[in-house]
Amino acid sequence: MFKKFLSNKAYPIIFLTIIVAISVILLVVVNNITSPVVEARRMEEITGNLEKIFPDIDKYELKDEIYFVYGKDGEKIGYAFTASGSGYGGVIDILVGLNSNFEIEGVSIISQTETPGVGARITESSFTDQFKGLTINDIALKSGGGKIDAITGATISSNAVVSAIRDRMSEVLDTLESSK
Amino acid sequence: MNDCKNKNNCPQAEACNQQEQHIKSDKKSSSGFTKELVKGIITVNPVFILILGLCPVLAITNTVTNALGMSAGVIFVLLGSNIIISSIRKVTPSMVRIPVFIVVIATFVTILSLVIEAYVPALHKSLGIYLPLIVVNCIVLGRAEAFASKNPVLLSAADAIGEGIGFAIALLVISLIREIMGTGKLEIFGKQLFEVPGLSEHPLIFFISPPGAFLVIGVTMAILRLAGVMKYE
User: Fold this and answer.
1) Among B43, B28, B17, residue whose Cα is nearest residue B162
2) Which residue of A11, A16, A26 is in closest CB contact with B111?
3) Is residue B9 situated within a structural domain?
4) Is B56 an interface residue toward A (CB < 8 Å)?
5) DSSP letter (8 states) at residue B63
6) Which residue range(s) make up the domain with B69?
7) In this complex, which of A19, A34, A118 lies closest to B104 when CB atoms are compared?
8) What is the residue-level pLDDT of chain B in tens, covering all 233 positions?
9) Where is A149: in which H helix or E strand?
10) How many domains does chain B have?
11) How far is CA B230 from CA A160, B47, B58, B126, B170, in A?
12) Which of A154, B131, B192, B232 has its CA 20 to 30 A from that of B9?
C-alpha cells in the first residue's frame, strides 16, 4: 500500500509541497523569535551611535528620516541623519550630527566594507574629526576646494564619504528649512 | 542515482568513486563512523582536495574571526542538512531530490542567518552576502547528493562533521596566513592576541586583498602536496 503510494505520479509534488510547508512553518517560528531581538538591537545601535556624536543626548525623535536630538533639559541640541554612499568595496553608511547652527557636530561611520588598512581608515577619528564644525560649503576634498584631507591611497573611499554627506546634508537642510 | 559516476566532467567524480569504495568497506566494518569523520579532514578535504566552495573561502578568509564564523555556519548547515536528507532518503522521489535538498539546505541557512543576525550582529555584518550564499555552497549540496542521500543517518552525520572540520581547518590555515601577513597582527572576536613588530606598521596589504587569497590557497595546496600530507588517491 505504502509502496504503491510512493510510485504514484503525484507523489513527488505532494512530497515537495510537504517539505516546503514544513520549511515555511519552521522559518516563521524562528523569525518570530529573532525579529524583536534584531529590532531592539538596531534601536540600541542608533542610540549608541548618536551618543558618540551627542554625549548629552537624552532622547531622540525620528521625523522625515531626520533624528531630532534632545538634551537632558528637554531642549533641542541638534539633528542627525544617515547618509550612504558607494565606496571602493561596497556601501558606506554614515551617521552625521548637526548642531542647531547646522554645522557638523560629528560624523560616525556606521558600516563599511572598504579595504582594511586602506579605505577602512575612513572610520578613524583622524579622518572623521575633520568634519567637525564645517558648514555644507566646506564639505569637499581639498582638491575640490573643500577642507577635507583625503586618506592617502584611498581617494575613492574618502570621496564617497564626503559626497554622500554633502548630498544628503543639502537634502536635510532643505527639509529642515521648509519645516520651520 | 549514479550520475556522478557517469559524468566524466563532474568535478567530484574522483571523490565520488573514492567515497563509494569507502562505503563498500564501511558496510562491514564497525569503525565506519570514525572513518567517515577522519576522511573529510584529510583524504577528502573539501577545500584542498575536492577544491569545492572556493568562492566563500576566497572571500571571507581575510580575518580569522570571519573564517571561524563561516566554518561554524557551514558545519551547522552541513550537519543539519545531511541528517535530514539522510533520514528522508528512502521516501524522497529521485525526480525532485535536488529541489528537496535545496529547500532543506536553504531552511537551515535561513535559520542560521536569522539567529546570527539576532545574537551575533557583528559577525552577520562581516560575513555579509556570504552567509546566505552557503545555500549554493557546493560542499553542502555536494555532500547531500554524493553522500547523505545514499547513506544511513549516523554515517551522514559523521561525514558532515568530518567535511565541516576539514573545511574549518582549511579556512583557519588560510585566514591565519592572510591576517598575520596582511595586518601584522592577530585579532579574534575583537581581542588582539599578538602583534608582529615591524610588520604591523607596514603590513603587506596584498595578502588581505582578493589576489592574495588565490596566492595563499595555491601555495598552501602546493606545499601540502609536496609534503605528501594530502594527495589524490
Assistant:
1) B43
2) A26
3) no
4) no
5) S
6) 61-226
7) A19
8) 344 444 444 444 444 444 444 444 444 444 678 888 887 777 778 888 778 778 888 888 888 988 998 999 999 999 999 999 999 998 888 889 999 999 999 999 999 999 998 888 888 887 878 888 888 888 888 889 989 999 999 999 999 999 999 999 999 999 999 999 888 888 887 777 788 887 877 888 888 888 889 999 999 888 888 877 655 54
9) none
10) 1
11) 46, 11, 20, 31, 12
12) B131
Candidates B111, B120, B149, B209: best to mutate against A (most CBs of A within 10 A) is B111
Give Cβ neighbours of residue B140 (< 8 Å, ≥ 6 apart). B53, B74, B77, B78, B81, B105, B134
Q: What does the alpha-carbon distance between residue A148 and residue A128 come to, in Å, rounded to a whole number?
A: 9
CA–CA gap between residue A49 and residue B68 (Å, rounded): 27
A116/B208 CB distance under 8 A: yes
In chain A, how long is the greatest CA-to-CA distance?
A: 83
Which residues in A lie closer than 8 A to residue B111 (C-beta atoms)? 26-27, 30
Helix (H, G, I), strand (E, B) or coil at A95: strand
In chain A, where the domains are located: 2-50, 59-178
Contact B131, B102 (CB under 8 A): no
Cα distance between residue A57 and residue B222, in whole Å: 57
Contact A113 B128 (CB under 8 A): yes
- Rg of chain A (C-alpha set): 24
**Distance in angstroms (rounded) separating the CA atoms of residues B186 and B193:** 6
Mutate to test the interface with A, among B65, B95, B127 (most CBs of A within 10 A): B95
Write the pLDDT tens digit of every residue in A103-126: 899 998 888 888 877 888 888 888
Q: How far apart are CA B45 and CA B159, in angstroms?
A: 11
What letter represents residue B125's amino acid?
Answer: K
- Decide which of A60 and B106 is more confident: B106
List the grid coordinates of B159: 561525514
- Cβ pair A17, A33 in contact under 8 A: no
Residue B51 lies in a domain: no
Closest CA to A175 of A49, A21, A64: A64
- Cell 545555500, located at residue: B135
Start-to-end C-alpha separation, chain B: 23
